[in-house]
Write a structure and sequence with these properties.
The complex is a heterodimer. Chain A is mostly helical. Chain A contains nine helices and no strands. Helix content of chain A is 73%, strand content 0%. In chain A, helix 3 packs across helix 4 and helix 3 (35-64) packs parallel to helix 7. Chain A is globular, with a radius of gyration of 17 Å. Helices cover 70% and strands 2% of the residues of chain B. Chain B has helices at 12-22, 33-38, 43-66, 76-98, 100-106, 117-127, 132-162, 184-232, and strands at 164-165, 168-169. Chain B has a two-stranded antiparallel sheet with strand order 1-2. In chain B, helix 3 (43-66) packs antiparallel against helix 7 (132-162). The two termini of chain B are 37 Å apart. Classes of the chains: A mainly alpha, B mainly alpha. Chain A binds chain B through residues 19-26, 29, 71-75, 78-79, 82, 111-114, 117-118, 121-122, 125, 165-172, 174-175, 177-179, 181-182, 185, and chain B through 30-31, 33-35, 37-38, 77-78, 81-82, 85-86, 88-89, 92-93, 108, 111-112, 114-117, 120, 180, 183-189, 191-193, 195-197, 199-200, 203.
Chain lengths: 191, 233
């Protein structure tokens, strides 16, 4: 239990997936315009990341590792994630149309979100158990959500600020990300 | 000056110019940010990552361009992902065998080349539509453009964060390295400044072009009124 807690806090706060590992930066910079889109994207990421961590570690443990196919993990994992995203999309369309409407465009984008593949590969490299992998997936998703929603909140406020012309748009977002990542350094003493 | 020579499209030189300057993936299109921020703690890491990505990009561009008439349109995404993932695995294993130090330094970011938007983007935007030779040079150009971005960021961060360039001490010993530049916040900071400089440059350029256009209009106006006046006489 203690171990799981350490994994969870470690991936959600200390080694925040976006702000210290630089995974999922594209979506972090791209869809953090408003809190609503940030929430939608984060919800979809938590969902897919948890499922992908679970499925990927099961496949690794029972298929790839016993048969000595470790080197195929990149190909297998990315295909698993792509298939999973497709499956989730179809399932949601059928049974949760409201949720599907809300997440709509974000779901296909997740296939190319490097955070999802990154977590799956990290789990294998750290030889986490299946339970630990799943916990790691959820925690990383929560860490992503935290960074994403905080950033969206700041960006909504920043709309009204008077920013020097050259710094408008991306540079200002990156500077904000810098300050956030400095703040997250504060967590590094926890574990 | 204003009559800049337009390069013929899809020639090798035009493709390389396009990748490095006109449509530079990181500095202009701003894609492929994850590896850009993550591995640029030093120039050598930047070069290593850039060239590794270029190899994958060139190989996948060639194969996808060769297969462009075979791959059905509705299945192209899974096919592209399969092709790219296979080349990434090949490259990863080669690096592990021949350049273990680089393999250690880049770590997780080598398998993550699969989800680098630049490679998928070029497959979708270029290689899937054009013949092999332009696709090959497109890969080289985009790969070089990516490497240029990585090297710029890596150089600034290594210089300020460690006082070295490519491992050699270039700043005087009295320089106190600012550690933050090698850590995560430094990456965001340097990229923000680089993009701000590019935006400033573009704004200045646009201003100049607008001023030149205005001057030209005035000249034409003066000429036509002059003509009208002389015709009226």
């Amino acid at each position: 239990m203690r171990e799981l807690l350490i994994i969870a806090i470690g991936s959600a706060l200390v080694n925040n997936v976006v702000l210290s590992q630089f995974l999922g930066i594209c979506s972090f910079l791209g869809v953090s315009n408003t809190i609503d889109t940030a929430k939608g994207m984060s919800g979809a990421v938590i969902f897919v990341m948890t499922l992908a961590s679970l499925v990927a570690s099961i496949i690794y443990k029972f298929v790839l590792n016993p048969f000595g196919l470790d080197y195929l993990k990149t190909i297998v994992f990315i295909l698993v994630i792509a298939a999973l995203v497709q499956l989730v999309e179809m399932f949601m369309k059928k049974s949760m149309p409201a949720m599907y409407q809300a997440l709509g465009i974000f779901l296909p984008l997740i296939t190319t979100n490097c955070a999802v593949l990154g977590v799956a590969i990290n789990n294998v490299q750290d030889s986490n158990s299946i339970l630990a992998s799943t916990v790691n997936g959820i925690a990383t998703g929560l860490g992503y959500t935290l960074a994403m929603v905080l950033m969206a909140g700041l960006r909504e406020k920043m709309e009204y600020n008077d920013i020097p012309k050259s710094f408008r748009g991306m540079p200002m977002v990156l500077l904000t990300a810098m300050l956030m990542s400095l703040a997250f350094f504060g967590f590094s003493g926890i574990i | 000056m204003s009559a800049k020579k337009e390069l013929t499209p899809n020639t090798p030189i035009e493709r390389i110019y396009n990748g490095v300057a006109k449509e530079n993936p990181v500095l202009v299109q701003m894609i492929g940010m994850c590896p850009l921020l993550a591995v640029t703690t030093s120039v050598s890491n930047g070069i290593g990552m850039g060239l590794t990505t270029m190899v994958v990009l060139v190989l996948s561009n060639i194969l996808i361009s060769l297969l462009r008439k075979v791959i059905p349109n509705s299945l192209r995404m899974p096919c592209y992902i399969g092709v790219i993932a296979s080349f990434v695995t090949v490259t990863e294993l080669s690096l592990k065998a021949y350049l273990p130090s680089l393999y250690e330094a880049l770590g997780l970011y080598i398998p993550l080349i699969v989800v680098n938007c630049i490679i998928m983007g070029r497959a979708e935007a270029f290689a899937g539509k054009y013949p092999v030779v332009p696709a090959f040079f497109d890969g080289i150009g985009m790969g070089l453009g990516f490497t240029v971005g990585l090297v710029i960021l890596g150089a600034v961060r290594e210089l300020l964060g460690a006082g070295t360039l490519l491992g050699y001490h270039v700043l005087p010993a009295s320089y106190q390295p600012i550690n933050m530049f090698i850590m995560a916040p430094g990456a965001f900071f340097v990229l923000a400044i680089v993009i701000a400089i590019i935006q400033k440059r573009n704004a200045v350029k646009e201003e100049k072009a607008a001023a030149a256009a205005k001057k030209e209009r005035e000249q034409i106006l003066a000429a036509t009124t002059g003509m009208a006046m002389s015709a009226g006489k």
